[in-house]
């Protein structure tokens, strides 16, 4: 199994505020869809609740401490360890948030697909964990300047474990 964290985070690692993303980057959404389609996506309950609905062509695995939580057409578990066990062991699975789930997942991740949004967000209340350069190698970086559809410059960064 390859465990990949996928996120969009500002230079100060800000992910979102009040369970919502801070920016709207259509090319980031396209990349997210392209990379995660056909795969299992693991997320915390708050992240699932923030989605506009089911993400098409993906199997949703929701981690929650709530013992009686149910979500139609989703797999509900109570820990990251359980989430990883219910996923196919010979495929890439994606951790899609939120901040607490990313933090728990860093130790088991093989890859990080990060959209680094250039700028900071002081009002954020959820953050991506620090990427330790002694444990991760930046394998690829593709810069995307701001334009009429994107209010921020950003870079698609792919990290792999050393």
Search tags:
single chain; 162 residues; alpha/beta; Dihydrofolate Reductase, subunit A; eight-stranded mixed beta sheet; three-stranded antiparallel beta sheet; 11 strands; globular; EC 1.5.1.3; DHFR-like_dom_sf; DHFR_dom; Dihydrofolate reductase; DHFR
How many helices in DSSP terms?
A: 4
Topology pattern, helix = H, strand = E: EEEHEHEEHEHEEEE
For the record, what CATH class applies? Alpha Beta
- Gyration radius from CA atoms, angstroms: 15 Å
What is the count of β-strands?
A: 11
What is the CATH topology? Dihydrofolate Reductase, subunit A
Largest sheet properties = 8 strands, mixed
* Class based on secondary structure composition and strand pairing: alpha/beta
- Poorly predicted runs of 5 or more residues: none
Adjacency order of strands in the biggest sheet: 6-5-4-7-1-8-11-10
Strand content: 35-45%
Rough shape? Answer: globular
Average of pLDDT: 96
């Amino acid at each position: 199994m390859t465990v990949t964290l996928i996120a969009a985070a500002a230079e100060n690692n800000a992910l979102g505020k009040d369970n919502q993303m801070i920016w709207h980057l259509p090319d980031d959404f396209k990349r997210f869809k392209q990379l995660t389609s056909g795969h299992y996506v693991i997320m915390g309950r708050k992240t699932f609740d923030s989605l506009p609905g089911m993400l098409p062509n993906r199997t949703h695995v929701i981690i929650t401490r709530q013992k009686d939580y149910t979500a139609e057409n989703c797999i509900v578990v109570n820990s990251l360890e359980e989430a990883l066990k219910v996923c196919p062991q010979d495929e890439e699975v994606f951790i899609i948030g939120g901040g607490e789930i990313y933090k728990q997942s860093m130790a088991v991740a093989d890859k990080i697909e990060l959209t680094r949004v250039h700028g900071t967000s002081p009002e954020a209340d959820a953050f991506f964990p620090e990427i330790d350069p002694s444990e991760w190698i930046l394998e690829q970086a593709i810069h995307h300047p701001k334009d009429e559809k994107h209010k921020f410059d950003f870079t698609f960064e792919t990290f792999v474990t050393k």
